[in-house]
Amino acid sequence: MVRPLKKSVIQLSLSLCLGATSLSSFAANTDYRNFETIEKQLQSLAQKHPERIKLQAVGKSAGGRSLYFVQIAGAGKVNADKRPALFVGANIAGFHNAGSEAAMHLIETLANSNEKKHEDLLSKRTIYVAPILNPDAHNGLFAMPRQLRAGNDGKLDRDLDGLVAEDGDDDLDGNGIITQIRIKDPSGDMIVDPKDPRRMIKADISKGERGTHRVFIEGKDDDKDGTYNEDGIGGIHPDRNFPAGFPVADTSAGAWPGVTPETKATMDAVLSHKNIAMAVVFGPANQLLSAPNGFDRITPPGATPAAEANKLEADDLKVLANLGEAYKKSIDQAGLDSKRSAKQTGKGSLANWLYFHYGVQTIELDVWGAPVAKASAPEANAAPAAAPGSTSAANVSGNPARPSGANPAAKASDAEKDLISYLTSNSPESIIAWKKVKLPDGTEVEVGGTDPYAQYTPAAKVLEPALKVHTEQILSWGEKLAQLEILETKAIAKGDDVWQITVIGGMQGEFPTHSKLATRMRNKLPVRLEMRPGKGVTALTLNRATTAERLEPSSTIKGEWLVKGASGSTVNVGLWTNQAGQALTTITLGKAN
């Protein structure tokens, strides 16, 4: 459950006036739970509901915080680790605290529910949830000053000068929030948006526009090398450190895939659960509002071009499209906006690894986003403010690719327009008007922008409906997972104690047993239908098993074998695959089956 806001807007304004010291109490009382609070609540739930909740620490972050996997399952005929399972991983990005709240909402709903539909689901399915996969950065929301953060607590020489964290961000205006600075410079390529003076946009040369400013993260040139804030605190970004599409030229992604303890622990934990059939990542992208486009391969000079898959299979895109229709209806019914903008999953991300390498249908969801702004004329006298925070390098702590003359902030997208419109009406205190500040070297700059978490951490009353929708959707997807079943068995006498055994297998559920990509890459065991003779029975057919790379809801698998045995003898038949469970039956020769 999201914790209620304990300070009013008036109190917040008073805190801003009193300075950063007063803001510390506000930061501790936001709508969201820090890592330590969630850790205690997970431990409490596991103690209170041992029959349903099993808590496992699968590793530690760079900062020494535990990485938790929660297994949620009820009593059933099949062990929890053999049932079709759904994995939910939250906030590997570090700044997506709403994702952790969504994961906790799912855990708390299933832990405390006495509803029959939930008991039935948990008797035949297993849900694995990792609510905070980047706990070091997760707590950045509660730090002072507050700045969007993605890197863990490790050390990283971002500018490769032999020093670590020697030029981080600075709270120049003392309000406890790291926003942006703009510097007048005719060689810059940013301008004040002529249609909305609250935003900075990139000058459009094709329209004859010329840049008037450079834009940076708020701070000064601490190491006096002519660049602002290029080497801040924090280490590698775990959500850029996975192997799928690993961005080799990005310092913040690490020297090689899996180098961060968070990334490796996550991969090891997922790989140890072979029954995972579907994955959901709560992060900054939304693949049901904007179909994923994969990633571009990166081939270093002189290297052999990579052969890894990098685009989604058409059949898997169809699954996402079908799910998207119901998903959009559900969020519209909850008063949210299904037509809002949505980001794409980045290179080296958990979502891409789960789909392209681990091999299961994967969906990244952002839980909440600012609705599309209603068309209206901009306020002529609007107080100027910086472009709102984004997942770009310009706003994430520790990213070496900060906006500068060589790498400016991108032109405001529709999502940024929607966000600033939303904040104007619903959270105006999140927009900080520009304020002139003089740096130690005498340079005059202006500080302004938005609270960098504004687009990811809406108030509790806004987020609550989104949490309910996403829990309901995930549980419905769990119901639709493929479950193998044996549809028909026959044992026809051929004379002289010879029998022809025929078995047809199929599946329940609305999803295929495997993603289409997994069948192409062959990184999952296929569906296997196998006959095993009982005591006194001899197999006359050489091959006792038949396989299929995957089964779809309307498809079947058929096996035929000849055996020799007396009437009353038995033959065992099994149908199984790691991701869709198993079905077993015994055929008695000479008896109607």
Automatic annotation (TrEMBL):
Biased composition range(s): Low complexity: 382-394
Q: Cofactor(s) for this protein?
A: Zn(2+)
The cross-references to SUPFAM superfamilies, in alphabetical order and at most eight, read:
Zn-dependent exopeptidases
Q: Name one Pfam family in it.
A: Peptidase_M14
Alphabetized InterPro entries for the sequence: Peptidase_M14
Q: Which species? A: Undibacterium seohonense
Is Glycosyltransferase tagged as a keyword? no
**Name the record gives this protein:** Peptidase M14 domain-containing protein
Q: Which UniProt keywords apply?
A: Hydrolase, Metalloprotease, Protease, Signal, Zinc
Signal sequence span per UniProt? 1-27
What's the domain of life for this entry?
A: Bacteria
- Which intervals of the chain are annotated as region Disordered? 382-411
Domain Peptidase M14 span(s) in chain numbering? 31-394
Family assignment from sequence similarity: Belongs to the peptidase M14 family.
